[in-house]
Amino acid sequence: MKTLMAMGGALNSKKPEVLREFVRRAGGRAARIVILPQASSLADTGPGYITQFLALEAQSATALEFYRRDEAGAQPQIQSLREATGVFIAGGNQMRLSILYGGTALETELHAAYQRGCVIGGTSAGAAILSKTMIAYGKTGPTPRERIAQFIPGFGFTDKFVFDMHFRQRDRLGRLIYAVATCPAVLGVGVDEDTAAIVEDDTTISVCGSGGITIIDGSQIANTDVAEVEKGGPVAVSGLTIHVLTKDCCYSRETRAALLPEKALLSE
Amino acid sequence: MKTLMAMGGALNSKKPEVLREFVRRAGGRAARIVILPQASSLADTGPGYITQFLALEAQSATALEFYRRDEAGAQPQIQSLREATGVFIAGGNQMRLSILYGGTALETELHAAYQRGCVIGGTSAGAAILSKTMIAYGKTGPTPRERIAQFIPGFGFTDKFVFDMHFRQRDRLGRLIYAVATCPAVLGVGVDEDTAAIVEDDTTISVCGSGGITIIDGSQIANTDVAEVEKGGPVAVSGLTIHVLTKDCCYSRETRAALLPEKALLSE
């Protein structure tokens, strides 16, 4: 099975429910985790996550510590990725990741790892970069507006979903609606802080963590003026379908339907 | 025709597009406007709006200045309302309005005015109180959570819609989804600042102003656990339909469909 975990940032380090689920899916005590720390500008990001993953009883955890493109793809890095059962991408600025890894041998290895079942997880910027089209930066808050978000290519493990993180906390509905309105074939997934959207086989999404995720489905959009609006004006979009999902809920891209945990089902 | 104008607060006083539309619908140069200033705690709220409405060439503007229940319903107040073509309810704390007007002769006169075609408009708290069930207060920002919003009865000009103001600016999606999830028969209408949702005959909504409105339709909700969640936990809701509408868009409660201005229609 192929697995992505898009984490919403601000993970709770005292109740590490999300990282525990990541380690569990990566093999638990057999998990060999490789950390990509470069989106962060803090020197202790790699060592900090190593400590956390070892505390969660992963078998091993190592960080790929390099900060120049010509250092990407050294043999020990390649070897670590080939042995990894989980790859964790830290938060910060997602453009640092795309600039450093894009088109390198390491990027190829990341895709090979994903295809053979290595769990790929990232938080905040590390989650944004999972998708083919990622929101690189944008304005928060208001109604969707022309150019409220700017897109650049991410690592591209999926082209079915686009993720936005710190979702409620930073009021990013406007820019995620904008992303979906401009590309209705892609499902928008807004992930709250301390929460993860877990994507299996590019099809189903489940939720873990203390917050919620918001799935924006543009396939039923009746009308939008997104192509006509100029100069940052507000954008109209009619007929979005939205699902707000919490822990243990799941959603299928194929049926476009959500399942809530059994005790909550209205119909039972 | 019966008309409500729910305005999102923070009206632009230099480009008073929303108040100009209110005066226009109240009769333009024949408009006789009565202001309810009590939600505000500022002494110059009434005089301030009088100045604005006269500048917009209304025929007359007067404020009902009283701050005790036993002063509600004096004959000059009643007379003003009987002659009014527009009633404007200022912003502040909506509970001050319900406490002061609820059950008085003035409230009866307000309903009579609405029924005979007097335009009833309000901004911020003054818009919240238009509906039968109003969001009295609540937490901003996060995912819908158990008890994120508290409801009390408003003036009740409509029981088909519930309004929430400063919508994007204060990140109120969570609480409006909560309101709709608990009562799917009511359409949630989130109104941005300097923007108005104009409700005609309790059926159609159009938009004026610089921002947008967000209509949340819960009639297709597939499942929600809103009745089960405890202790402020996050609420799951699947299958909401959302329309983000801007100036000159309109929406019909009967067809549950939105119309965008012609030039923006995808289908044409």
Notes on the structure:
The structure is a homodimer of 268-residue chains. Chain A is α/β, with parallel strands linked by helices. Chain A has one domain: Rossmann fold, CATH 3.40.50.880. Helix content of chain A is 23%, strand content 29%. Chain A is built from seven helices and 16 strands. In chain A, the strands form three sheets. A nine-stranded mixed β-sheet of chain A has the order 3-2-4-5-1-10-11-15-16, sandwiched between helices. Chain A has a five-stranded mixed β-sheet with strand order 8-9-12-14-13, covered by helices on one side. The longest helix of chain A is centred in the first third of the chain and has 11 residues. The two termini of chain A are 31 Å apart. The C terminus of chain A is likely disordered. At the A-B interface, helix 7, strand 13, strand 14 and strand 16 of A face helix 7, strand 13, strand 14 and strand 16 of B. Strand 14 of chain A pairs antiparallel with strand 14 of chain B, so a sheet runs across the interface.
CATH fold topology of chain A: Rossmann fold
Based on Cα principal axes, name the global outline of chain A. Answer: globular
Number of strands of chain A: 16
Structural class of chain A: alpha/beta
Distance between the termini of chain A: 31 Å
Identify the strand order in the major beta sheet of chain A: 3-2-4-5-1-10-11-15-16
pLDDT < 50 runs, ≥5 residues of chain A: 264-268
Residues in helix, % of chain A: 10-25%
The domain tally of chain A reads 1
Q: Give the DSSP E fraction of chain A (strand runs of 2 or more residues).
A: 25-35%
The name of the CATH architecture of chain A is: 3-Layer(aba) Sandwich
CATH class bucket of chain A: Alpha Beta
Note the total helix count of chain A: 7
The radius of gyration of chain A is: 18 Å
Let me know the largest β-sheet of chain A.
Answer: 9 strands, mixed
Q: What is the CATH homology-level superfamily of chain A?
A: Class I glutamine amidotransferase (GATase) domain
Note the quaternary state here.
homodimer
Most extensive chain contact? A-B, 48 and 48 residues
N to C succession of SSEs of chain A: EHEHEHEHHEHEEEHEEEEEEEE
